[in-house]
Write a structure and sequence with these properties.
Layout (H helix, E strand, L loop, with lengths): L2 H41 L9 H5 L3 H18 L5 H37 L3 H26 L6 H6 L18
């Protein structure tokens, strides 16, 4: 396996790992607040709204965005252009960090939304809209990363046209004339 292919695979692992880490952090924050909000409802003998679970799941989508980038980097690893490996690693770390931050902060906003919704019973749509704006950051990062990944892979047509690097063309001596 060539180094560029190996680095593209490492980048694929990195981007999904960072994205999933952000989702886990965000889900953890939102889940803790949601459980606390349900507890408050139970303590006040109010029904605990199941709709609060929406806040818990909000940061999960960032893992999907990382998975999409992972898939694209794995495809790039099959036929990378020279130097694509370093670009893939840098892209994976930076895109993964952006998606991770989006998920973590989305979980924090979801936690506040769950608490506010349980306490007031109002504003659910507003809370989801705020969470959606944070989600947009992850979508932008994913789209811009896709735009950057596309040139890292040699197209099949170019690969078929280019001669293999190990082949040298040498002028053959003219055959000797037969008497």
């Amino acid at each position: 396996m060539e180094i560029d292919s190996a680095l593209c695979i490492a980048g694929a692992i990195g981007v999904v790992g960072l994205s999933a880490a952000g989702s886990a952090i965000g889900i953890g924050k939102a889940a803790c607040a949601t459980i606390g909000a349900w507890k408050k409802c139970y303590a006040q003998n109010k029904p605990a709204p199941y709709t609060l679970f929406t806040f818990v799941g909000a940061p999960l989508t960032q893992t999907l965005y990382g998975m999409i980038l992972m898939s694209m980097l794995l495809t790039t690893a099959k036929n990378p252009i020279p130097g694509a490996g370093i670009a893939a690693i840098v892209l994976a770390v930076l895109a993964g960090a952006g998606i991770c931050a989006s998920a973590a902060f989305q979980g924090q906003a979801a936690a506040a939304g769950a608490d506010a919704q349980a306490e007031t019973g109002k504003g659910f749509t507003n809370y989801l809209a705020a969470i959606g704006v944070i989600e947009t950051v992850a979508i932008f990062v994913m789209v811009f990363a896709i735009i950057c990944i596309l040139p890292l892979s040699a197209s099949e047509e170019k690969a078929a046209e280019a001669p293999p690097a190990a082949v040298q063309v040498v002028d053959a001596p003219a055959p000797a004339a037969a008497d």
